[in-house]
Amino acid sequence: MADSRSPVVQPCARCGARWAVQGKPLHWCPRCHGVLLSPAPVDAPPERRNYRWVARPPGRKAHPDRTPPRRAVNPETPRYTQIPRWGLQDRPPQQAVAPQSRLDRLASRIPRLLTLTAVVFGLAALAELLRYGILLRNRTRLIHPWLLWGSDAAVIFSAVLSLVFALVSAVALVAWLARTRRAAYTAAGKRDPRSPRMLALGCLVPGVNLIFPGVFLTEAARVRSEAGGLLRVVRIWWGAWVLNGALVVVAVLYKFAGSLQVEADGVLFTVWTNLIAAGVAVLTLWVVRAFAGQDLRGRELTVKRWLIAPAGPEPVIEPVQPGAGAASAGRAPAAAVGNDEATASNPEREQEEVLAK
Question: Quick one: angle between helices 196-204 and 145-187, nearest 10?
């Protein structure tokens, strides 16, 4: 009775709309043009329905007339042509590396810059020494103009090149000093009281840079725990740095001399100034590597640990004297021989011993 009173509908497989059947059943939905299912009463229970609901992912259309293509089955046994490199890997988390600025990249090249600076100052000293030799030869003989021109060019070029390398190294050292002080104060749980601008002004302003670089390095060395060796290195460098600054001032004053002899002495003095400047560049490299825990050649420093050596162990048992043992061993055969002789001379006693046994 329920089926005869209930209208017969056709559900749409796409939009879910129900269309009443009036005469011949339809095949396509008038709304979305989806497939209409077979007619059934609207209130028919699930076991009496002649269709079923199929769940599909959203946005996926049904293609009843299209079957998915099957993959061709390879009859060969699967195998590896090489050892597999995949697998589970428990890699430690990598820390994100902050991008380096230009000054940081320049500070990382300090060993190479200081080495080149020392070499250039050595070449400048050699050029000044050759000029001094030409001056000595010019006292008695004439010098060819091309030789004088070559000497002047070598002196000027080496002086300008050494000045450029010294300035670039100074800027790189300021960046290194700021980074080293920040790391030292951070390890000690403190904050660097000197700002980067103060460090730059104290290290780059002429005259002032004879005092403040040593002060900045001394403060950084005292913050660290192993301050003893670093303070000695910093003091040696500071003394050489002040001496080099004084020599540079005197060498500049020689340029304003009025006599030829004083000018020749100034050339010779410039030779020594350039050599000391090369030595200061080497000492600066020593300071940089000392703060990194390395020696001048870049090798790691080994820490020497002194331990108190205890005295030798006291003997608990008195050592055996070889003389007493030999004497007792020498007496034992004599007693045995004496007993044998006494037994041989008294046969009755021997018989008594046998009976006793």
Answer: 150
